[in-house]
Amino acid sequence: MGNSGVGMLQDGTSSTLLWLWFIGAFVLGGAILYGVLKSGRLNRRDRALLDRNTEAAQRRDDPQKRSGRSVE
What we know:
By secondary structure, this protein is an all-alpha fold. The chain has helices at about 5-10, 10-40, 45-60. Helices cover about 70% and strands about 0% of the residues. The N and C termini lie far apart (about 70 Å).
């Protein structure tokens, strides 16, 4: 059993490295989850400001574009 996977995991260095991988994955997952939760929602005032700025940028880029929203 000298070179099998179980034998390698019984070595102190390999088990420490395995635990570091798990801890790293946990920390990375927590950071990604935090970013997703914080970036997902805008309040009403920020959403309105974003919409106004988007419409202004679209008018600036294409002056012939109709202002306001069209319903089709």
